[in-house]
């Protein structure tokens, strides 16, 4: 049985093993388990039951991870996406006065459209049509983006009214946890210690508890809250999607999740070395897994689910097969009952991992043709756009819109595929919808 599983998950081809894959899955889970606490807080502001959202978040994440691992065999984890959950709560429900039940129905309808365009292979064609240089830019841009998230979460970079952002205060004790974690993890990686990123997280958590900077867990086990307040609510309110305003909301859910996921999948596939002839193998299965997770998540009662950039932490540890994603999914299920222990994994603990992974993903910059402006300009806009707009999809939009313009200016317009011209127009519409 074990040999058959290793053959199915291509262990020999990927040069991996069970220990490495499970450790990678645990590292990915630890890097993204904050969503179990953040998502209920965000959606709770919209009036949703926080306990039910906690359970829905865990189950939707587990489902997405398991389907991605078993069906697509990629080490990429899924969970309710940050950013779009804030759009759900603060823009749609609070700002537009749309009941959360109706907003959840909007996520359900968007997921159905998502599944349809996946079956028609439109998403697959779009991903495969993106030029290699821009794929490398997307991967490196995601690296800069998650490094920026890590620097901010760790307190090293903070908001500054005078300069937009600035260096955080070194008088804040918890910031030193991030600095310690970053230094010790880099040392472990240079010394080629197996699972260096995860070991760094454990040591940082231990230091935090010893010094009192991280509170000791109040317990070990805790029962999972009831799912009843949110389960199936989306299905009961589909009929409420009956106005142009609500269809714009549905379209926004669809487009943001579409481009965020596309960018994340491309970036992570580049990092793991999966790309072959500028194409991502089994991309159709990966996209099907992703869209089905969004569908299930909407029924359970949470905002759109998508691939997580934090999967890069598990890939950096050595995760290459679907077992990494499966392991992360199983840890999400366990996480429902061990929530007190998850409290010790603070943002300062995960921040060093995100910063280091950003460094590793920035290596893709070496593969971009910087000596041709028609390539360099859109690539640079993707790179700088992702961290500065705090959005993978917005960063992609800047590069995808300018790419055909630059190529036409360089008299290379015929080299641009029809899909890329269409994509530029779609992104223009995408930015317009987000800003109306």
From TrEMBL:
<feature type="transmembrane region" description="Helical">
    <location>
        <begin position="102"/>
        <end position="122"/>
    </location>
</feature>
<feature type="transmembrane region" description="Helical">
    <location>
        <begin position="380"/>
        <end position="406"/>
    </location>
</feature>
<keyword id="KW-1133">Transmembrane helix</keyword>
<feature type="transmembrane region" description="Helical">
    <location>
        <begin position="197"/>
        <end position="216"/>
    </location>
</feature>
<dbReference type="InterPro" id="IPR045018">
    <property type="entry name" value="Azg-like"/>
</dbReference>
<keyword id="KW-0472">Membrane</keyword>
<dbReference type="InterPro" id="IPR006043">
    <property type="entry name" value="NCS2"/>
</dbReference>
<protein>
    <submittedName>
        <fullName>NCS2 family permease</fullName>
    </submittedName>
</protein>
<feature type="transmembrane region" description="Helical">
    <location>
        <begin position="244"/>
        <end position="266"/>
    </location>
</feature>
<feature type="transmembrane region" description="Helical">
    <location>
        <begin position="51"/>
        <end position="72"/>
    </location>
</feature>
<feature type="transmembrane region" description="Helical">
    <location>
        <begin position="172"/>
        <end position="190"/>
    </location>
</feature>
<feature type="transmembrane region" description="Helical">
    <location>
        <begin position="418"/>
        <end position="434"/>
    </location>
</feature>
<feature type="transmembrane region" description="Helical">
    <location>
        <begin position="21"/>
        <end position="39"/>
    </location>
</feature>
<feature type="transmembrane region" description="Helical">
    <location>
        <begin position="79"/>
        <end position="96"/>
    </location>
</feature>
<feature type="transmembrane region" description="Helical">
    <location>
        <begin position="287"/>
        <end position="309"/>
    </location>
</feature>
<keyword id="KW-0813">Transport</keyword>
<dbReference type="InterPro" id="IPR026033">
    <property type="entry name" value="Azg-like_bact_archaea"/>
</dbReference>
<feature type="transmembrane region" description="Helical">
    <location>
        <begin position="134"/>
        <end position="152"/>
    </location>
</feature>
<keyword id="KW-0812">Transmembrane</keyword>
<comment type="similarity">
    <text>Belongs to the nucleobase:cation symporter-2 (NCS2) (TC 2.A.40) family. Azg-like subfamily.</text>
</comment>
<keyword id="KW-1003">Cell membrane</keyword>
<feature type="transmembrane region" description="Helical">
    <location>
        <begin position="349"/>
        <end position="368"/>
    </location>
</feature>
<dbReference type="Pfam" id="PF00860">
    <property type="entry name" value="Xan_ur_permease"/>
</dbReference>
<feature type="transmembrane region" description="Helical">
    <location>
        <begin position="321"/>
        <end position="342"/>
    </location>
</feature>
């Amino acid at each position: 049985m074990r040999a058959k599983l290793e053959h199915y998950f291509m262990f020999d081809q990927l040069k991996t093993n069970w220990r490495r894959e499970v450790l990678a899955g645990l590292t990915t889970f630890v890097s993204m388990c904050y969503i179990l606490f953040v998502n209920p807080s965000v959606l709770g502001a919209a009036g949703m039951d926080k306990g039910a959202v906690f359970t829905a978040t865990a189950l939707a994440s587990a489902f997405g991870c398991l389907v991605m691992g078993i069906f697509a065999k990629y080490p990429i984890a899924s969970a309710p996406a940050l950013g779009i959950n804030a759009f759900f709560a603060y823009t749609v429900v609070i700002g537009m006065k749309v009941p959360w039940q109706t907003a959840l129905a909007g996520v359900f309808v968007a997921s159905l459209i998502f599944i349809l365009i996946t079956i028609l292979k439109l998403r697959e064609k779009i991903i495969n049509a993106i030029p290699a240089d821009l794929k490398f830019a997307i991967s490196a841009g995601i690296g800069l983006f998650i490094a920026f998230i890590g620097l901010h979460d760790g307190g090293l970079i903070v908001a500054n009214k005078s300069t937009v952002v600035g260096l955080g205060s070194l008088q804040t004790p918890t910031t030193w946890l991030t600095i310690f974690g970053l230094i010790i993890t880099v040392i472990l990686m240079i010394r080629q210690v197996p699972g260096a990123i995860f070991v760094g997280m454990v040591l940082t958590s231990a230091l935090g508890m010893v010094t009192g900077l991280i509170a000791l867990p109040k317990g070990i086990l805790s029962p999972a809250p009831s799912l009843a307040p949110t389960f199936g609510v989306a299905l009961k309110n589909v009929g409420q999607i009956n106005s142009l305003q609500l269809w714009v909301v549905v379209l926004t859910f669809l487009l943001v999740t579409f481009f965020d996921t596309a960018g994340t999948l491309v970036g992570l596939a580049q990092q793991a070395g999966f790309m072959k002839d500028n194409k991502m193998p089994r991309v159709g299965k990966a996209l099907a897994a992703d869209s089905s997770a969004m569908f299930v998540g909407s029924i359970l009662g949470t905002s759109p689910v998508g691939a997580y950039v934090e999967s890069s932490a598990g890939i950096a540890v050595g995760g290459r097969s679907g077992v990494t994603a499966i392991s992360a999914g199983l840890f999400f299920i366990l996480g429902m009952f061990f929530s007190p222990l998850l409290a010790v994994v603070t943002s300062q603990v995960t921040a060093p991992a995100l910063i280091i992974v950003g460094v590793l993903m920035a290596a893709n910059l070496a593969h971009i043709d910087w000596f041709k402006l028609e390539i360099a300009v859109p690539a640079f806009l993707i790179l700088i756009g992702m961290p500065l707009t705090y959005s993978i999809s917005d960063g992609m939009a800047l590069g995808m819109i300018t790419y055909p313009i630059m190529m036409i200016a360089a008299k290379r317009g015929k080299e641009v595929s029809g899909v890329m011209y269409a994509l530029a127009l779609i992104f223009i519409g995408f930015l317009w919808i987000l800003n109306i």
